[in-house]
Amino acid sequence: MARVVLENVCKVYPGGVKAVDNANLEIADEEFVVLVGPSGCGKSTTLRMIAGLEEISSGTISIDGRVVNDVPPKDRDIAMVFQNYALYPHMTVYDNMAFGLKLRKFPKAEIDRRVREAAQILGITEEQLWRKPKALSGGQRQRVAVGRAIVRKPKAFLFDEPLSNLDAKMRVQMRAEISKLHDRLKSTMIYVTHDQVEAMTMGDRIVVMKDGVIQQVAEPIDLYDNPKNMFVAGFIGSPPMNFVKGTIQRHDGALWFHEAGTQNRVRLPDDKARAVETYVGKDIVFGIRPEDVAHSVQGADPNASVDATVDVVEPMGAEIFLYMTTGAHNLIARVDPHDKAQVGQRITATFDLRKCHLFDPATEKTLV
Fold this sequence. Notes:
The protein is α+β, with helices and mostly antiparallel strands. Helix content is 26%, strand content 34%. It has helices spanning 43-51, 93-103, 108-122, 126-129, 138-150, 168-185, 196-202, 220-225, 230-235, 270-275, and strands at residues 4-13, 17-27, 32-36, 58-63, 66-67, 78-81, 156-160, 188-193, 205-210, 213-218, 242-251, 254-259, 265-267, 283-288, 293-296, 305-315, 320-326, 329-335, 346-351, 357-359. α6 links the parallel β7 and β8 (188-193). α2 (93-103) runs parallel beside α5 (138-150) and α3 (108-122) crosses α5 (138-150). It is elongated and about 80 Å long.
């Protein structure tokens, strides 16, 4: 397998459009790394540059210690799985999976062994091997596309949004299958998606991109708990983090966050307060995840609570999402499925302030 390294990689299209800006990334041998971000953030372009399908404008890409800037895709020893499967419609499943090996003049016996081994790994039956792609479901076609990559035994697997054409149930199933495949093959995998749930559940590490720039690279839980800026904090997590604008004020020897335009205020824990000492009297953005907002029926801590009006109650089965308004801001709380909050009700929302985040409104960088 292979270690993949990007050093100061840029991609600029004609007209000066910068799709990828100074990307630096090191992917370890056998690691599963997910590139995630909104449409147009540069994640697929980055993947295509690693594959050799896009020329890089500057920088260096190396695979297994070899610089591949000028190496054709066929000679990079990588395999790519596309969003649209890219299967040959006139060929059987068997021939689709064997095609790359036939081009490389592999012996027939070796081709047959590899195809059947990949089919067994992916749960492709003997009957399905002799069908044409049009006779398969979307999930089965995606298995064939993955199988075609497996038979080549490449140094690295590249996946470009491979599940986006599948329905929700099949996406969950294939997500688990690709993760199991990685565990079984012990291979280097680079996976592109716009779905942060896929990223959180599949990746050893996640690379968050925005406007061609890598915002943060971290393990899923570290990314969730310690986002470097407001974009990462808002993109990772479903529902997203709540953001409330306000100021830092000092009262009775403590620092408080005051929500803009309201009387709402909460007292910051000592460790958070120390990080924003220089922001007293200045604007700041307060962030809190929905699971750290509770609907307090009684005994609410007045130093950690605000008044809010319930706008929408969204039952999800195992939990309820409460969409609330407090002052000029909207809040989402993830609460117990038996919560009795009603639309239009005035409630007390209590924050777990140990979990709050504080951001500079100008730079959007985290302060804690």
